[in-house]
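Teaching assistant here, posting this on the class forum so everyone can see the example we discussed in section. The complex has three components, and the goal was to see what a joint structure prediction looks like when all of them are supplied at once.
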Amino acid sequence: MLQRTIPIAILCLSGAIMVGAYFISSAQSWGETVTTWFNILAAVAFVLGAGNLIAMNLEKISSQRPGWGYAAITLVSFAFMLVVGLLKLGAVPNDKHPDIHLAGSYDTPASPFGWMYEYVMSPLTATMFALLAFYVASAAFRAFRAKNTESILLLGTAFIVLLAQTAAGMFLTGWIPEDSAFAFLRLDKIKAGIIEHVQTAGMRAIMIGIALGIAAMSLRLILGIDRSYLSKN
Amino acid sequence: MQRTTSARGITALVAISAALLAPCTVAMAQAGDAVAASERGWFRGDRTALLVALGVVGIAIVIAIMRARAGHPVKIRRMPALEAVDEAIGRATEMGRPVFFIPGIQDMTDIQTVAGVTILGRVARTAAEYDAKLEVPTSRSIVMSAARDIVQAAHFEAGRPDTFDAGRINYITDEQFGYVAAVTGSMMREKPAACFYMGAFYAESLLFAENGNSIGAIQIAGTAEPSQLPFFVAACDYTLIGEEFFAASAYLSGERVQLGSIQGQDIGKMLAVGLIAVGVVVGTIGAVDPSGKVSAAFENLKSLIGG
Amino acid sequence: MTNPQHIGGIRGFFARLGGIDRRWIFLAMGLSIAIPILLKLRFPEYPGPMAKATFDAVEKVPEGSTVLLSFDYDPASAAELQPMASALVHHCASRKLKIVFMALWPLGKQQADRTIDTVLKPFHPEYREGIDYAQLGFQAGNEGVIKVMATNLPKQYPNDADGKAIGDIPLLKDTKDLGAFKLVASISAGYPGAKEWVQYGNGAMPDAFEVVSGSTGVQVGQLLPYYPKQMEGLLVAVKGAAEYEMLVEAKYPAADPEVIGQGRVRMGPQLVAHLLMIALIVLGNIAMIAGRPRGGAR
């Protein structure tokens, strides 16, 4: 009983205080203090996560589950980066204190840690991000179908924005003088109109709904009405 | 089944942090935060309009909750995405394949993650009842801890504490694309029959959803990240859009009191619509009024309300 | 829907196209990007109003003033955002503005370092660290960092990225808060980023400085409500970078146009990829129509 009541009581009280503090000049820094507390908590919890990562991957390797080779690579990479980073192996000596190894810089490509970041981490993350181009293409091929009036409008809008976002837009309609009565037919003008009026209006409506949804959910949590995030036993 | 008290403690702290930060940093900011803030008395006078709006919306929600508690009927429209939860998990059980639940890539300080894990409770209970295998890869240690607590509670509720396996709820990495690589790799190997994406998502949304689509999984998504909604809508079977996502936990609970809060939220929306209508009318008249008085009144109204 | 395998002729061919293995689409997309890169295809760009507004915002900052550049992205989105970051740094340095670098993303600091090494040092060798520019680096705390900087910058950043005390850095020793900057530019890939700079930076002191931003294409919808009132300039994706480069290059030619020209280089593959997308959408619809039963129920 107390295991649920006490957290809810703390939550209600501190939530109400924080809402009030938002409107009080001298209490502006309270939010940052809470952020600091959370960062400390998250840093400690990271140990829990790292322990889980090691246990999970060791289990995968020992039971030779599908993909156990990747688990081995993960563990070796994890251990390597941890040791190189913590011990600052190969760090570039500090100008002021060249004799103190731990004062050295480890985030330049001249050190192993920086080198790994520059030539392994950067290309890998960029590659993952670049995969989006391929998935966008296959999703567009499959999902953009003119099934009804709304989807035809959506298709037309997509074509205009896709063309206007490149030199093709200017190639097709750039010859229409900007100060002529037909300037509104230029693809760049139509795109600007779509983005600034149609898209922004829709986005604002969604954002207002989200803000109200967050307010209602926060209130349910602060008032202790929604307790589904706590265990029930 | 042995319970971990540390996990319970962390969950409580996490909930506190989320509740502390969420209303202050997200909702208020999104409701129109960027206003003048030069004066520094004890009260932030520049935030008066926001305080009034917060008060009105808050009171509307509390009144709606009290009405629901008093027995007044609460009518909420159907949400097909949530109705499909049972169907998706049932299909996974029949096919003997796992169910994946991805709670986004943000920590518990993001209220979207809190909303996501509340939905996880319901998904986990249904999975426990059907004896389906539920996998929850997380990108934050605290989310893993909270998710384990919730899934374990769901197994207790379903009367199946013996089937709870903490090893299926794992921490992968905080690094966005490292997490994506690990989860999509698991998807391709294990071929889940149902995938739930509930939380804060960014560029990884389409990578998850397209991979899930390619293996023929039923996919249900929910997020309040407006930029990712088009991707989920294109690649998933069902999507909870913005406020629907926050309403989901109340909807799934089926409790009148929680449903009442959604009605209160709608009153807030009506207020916003009313203000927009007033702004449009006064602004339009101001544009054609030769005296300029209406235009001046419109500017005063704008600065009073927020900027 | 009729089984495409049972339809003959050209109609059958198009109907079967709907079920094409997606790896063919991946191959087509790969080629549409690789070929323009290898052939170094370039197309003319014409600066739009948002790029002009960003350029003008930097132009009107008085010479010798200090600007804050926040690198709120990581290597994943560097392909989209680095060209505008490079052009922005070159523009600021060409105008003799003092530059303070920082990051709200953990890996943003490395991106700023890279920009310093590839743009600031080679093209503006007169810039001295600590006097003309400073690197504050990354601090955890997301929008909390901005909030503290708005009231007490040395509290948030007691040292620069190399551990040197703020008080010992000539450029920053008198800096109290964000009011010390005439312009804040956030090169932003998401949260925390440009939106937070508007809400918590500009919101705290709206008259002190202007905010401009460079954004990925996917998140621009969330930033448009702030442009042009709370955000004076907005560069959208590679196209925004290419347009901005044109403006910067025209007035301040760089020693190596390849470095301050990456946006335009990347617009070549983007054009071909967009045309491929349109072709794929059209083909997908033809496949849908071809697969429909003739005269039957739809």
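For the discussion questions: The mean pLDDT of chain C is 89. Chain C touches chain A through 55 residues (CB under 8 Å). Think about how each of these relates to the inputs above.
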